[in-house]
DNA sequence: CTGAAAGCGCTAACAA
DNA sequence: TTGTTAGCGCTTTCAG
């Protein structure tokens, strides 16, 4: 704030400094329409030497166009979302659209506030995590008249369109893989997050597929707060203390699974011979653990890219075709912790 | 996009629906000025039933006020920045200001673009990581006429004001602690990031303090890309192969330090007896490792809070007093990997 | 190729 | 307590 009182520069300032009409200055600055090289030169020089920064607020109001895409996610702490963001940014950087992030902390009311706030800037599109929203949020999305892509999840009905994976199917797939390896006494650990619908759906799919084979989860535990690695350790120890016969542990995310793995190795348990282990997400962060964790890739980057692509296409051409639901297939990697024989 | 062609609602629509003037509708919706309970009621009902979402673009243009704070950081992947964001959000949530994030990927040119883009929305303040910016960026910040807080680092001269820690001092402090424990043959591993000025300054402070005691870093290695944990493992193994006499390893961040730790334990090395270890950042993520890493807390949350506080105060009162440089003191934790005797 | 006029949707300032 | 008027800084549109 070296320049606290001087009025911000306007087009008019550039116009006066260059002796060119505001309109033509505006054209030059936006590379719109034909402007003679000489005039363009004059304008550019004046703008640069003054240090003019255009006022997008006025521009957006006049043109009724805002090159912003609202991206609404539950958290930045969970590495999943920064990775989705990367995919989105990578695609939007090829266009003139810009992502703007809003964080909901997994709270529907906060989601509603954030959404309202973002929509009031009249963005060109919305990318929002999950298919579960308050009625008011759904109403706002519907009324907005802009492309809306719900991401991460495809188990449900999108307001407009969706890109993600089926977490229910992912849970089932993992359950089948575990049973196939001959594991039988299975424990589950996850976050205590009634509002993390995707974790819930995975768990539901998981138990459902087990049930189909007559197997039930022997024990389960949910945590909240604290360091995931440490919690994974603690819960794993506690669960094995309660039931030393457990032969498989399924975790709702890779971090707590890693904690569990470290505990088991410390305790001298044979992994995966005596006890198998699997997490979820395929976070790159964790490559380099003593054992490579069995996990399932959530297609984060591709989800981001696909969602951004849909927004970009539909922004460019409102009649562009698009799929209502894009279901990606998560890849199961067995790592070193899911193979009995 | 269920509602693709219908014109977005305006104040006028609410005005007509409620039979109240636009101005009064505006007052109600902003809780400004005195409005009779009856009128307020009518307006609120009309607005809600129509599903009206105000147009902040028009509002901002008319009022010359934008309740946005631009937050410009190098990356969302490095957990440091989401944590700073939390601090910022926590404070701004008490005000009517909203953070908007821009990511630079550690590239000065991208920083310049992002800054330009954000300033063109005329935010109420800027929080930007680091003290090193291109001339153009510094010029824009100076000319903006709004409060600018440069965060994370205090080794240098801020454009307006700064909140952070001295990374040089942090490096020195760690060096002294290591020497004091009697370690002598010290190796260093870090990211290959010429543009990560803070890591560079830590390293400079580190070598400087060692030099003062006549000690030199015996070996050093820099990496880029890949999983930090895995890289930490590999580099550590390679370095110890090159020089088995090393007795201390200093890493530029906790993730690679954790990889190093896992390798050493696998290799049966006595930590910290035979080889000591230290990282940087104090990421909570890593609590739960077999040994608690020695590290230094970068005061991320407090940096975010303090920076946001400064912006909030100065936005409310342009003449508010504030410190030009707030240097926080990083706390050194010895954990289990930095104590010889 | 360049310019003039008329708003975009809202709010500051004033009047009633 | 409520309403009226005049812009905010730009872009659209239409005329030169």
From TrEMBL, chains A, B:
Superkingdom in the source lineage: Bacteria
One GO molecular-function entry: DNA binding
Gene3D superfamilies: 3.40.50.2300, lambda repressor-like DNA-binding domains (1.10.260.40)
Ranges where the HTH lacI-type domain occurs: 9-63
Keywords attached to this entry: DNA-binding, Transcription, Transcription regulation
Family annotation (InterPro entries): HTH_LacI, Lambda_DNA-bd_dom_sf, Peripla_BP/Lac1_sug-bd_dom, Peripla_BP_I
Protein name (record): LacI family DNA-binding transcriptional regulator
């Amino acid at each position: 704030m070296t320049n606290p009182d001087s009025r911000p520069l306007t087009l008019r300032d550039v116009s006066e400094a260059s002796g060119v009409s505001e309109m033509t200055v505006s054209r030059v600055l936006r590379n719109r329409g034909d402007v003679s090289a000489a005039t363009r030169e004059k304008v550019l020089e004046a703008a640069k030497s003054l240090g003019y920064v255009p006022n997008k607020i006025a521009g957006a109001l006049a043109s009724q166009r805002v090159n912003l895409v609202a991206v609404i996610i539950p958290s930045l702490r969970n590495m999943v979302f920064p990775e989705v963001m990367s995919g989105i940014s990578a695609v939007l950087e090829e266009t003139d659209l810009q992502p703007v992030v809003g964080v909901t902390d997994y709270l529907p009311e906060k989601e509603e506030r954030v959404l309202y706030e973002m929509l009031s800037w009249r963005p060109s599109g919305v990318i929002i995590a999950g298919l579960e929203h308050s009625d008011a949020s759904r109403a706002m999305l519907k009324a907005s008249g802009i492309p809306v892509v719900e991401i991460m999840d495809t188990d449900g009905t999108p307001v407009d369109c969706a890109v993600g994976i089926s977490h229910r199917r992912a849970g089932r797939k993992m359950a089948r893989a575990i049973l196939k390896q001959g594991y039988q006494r299975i424990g589950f650990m996850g976050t205590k997050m009634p509002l993390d619908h995707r974790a819930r759906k995975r768990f539901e799919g998981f138990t459902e597929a087990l049930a189909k084979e007559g197997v039930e989860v022997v024990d389960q535990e949910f945590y909240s707060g604290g360091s995931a690695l440490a919690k994974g350790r603690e819960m794993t120890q506690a669960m094995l203390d309660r039931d030393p016969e457990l032969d498989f542990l399924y975790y709702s995310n890779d971090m707590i699974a890693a904690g569990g793995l470290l505990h088991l190795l410390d305790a001298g348990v044979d992994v995966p011979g005596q006890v198998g282990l699997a997490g979820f997400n395929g976070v790159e962060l964790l490559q380099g653990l003593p054992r490579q964790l069995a996990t399932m890739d959530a297609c984060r980057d591709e989800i981001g890219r696909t969602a951004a692509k849909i927004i970009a296409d539909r922004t460019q051409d409102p009649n562009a075709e698009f799929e209502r639901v894009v279901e990606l297939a998560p890849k199961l990697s067995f790592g070193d912790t899911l193979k009995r024989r």
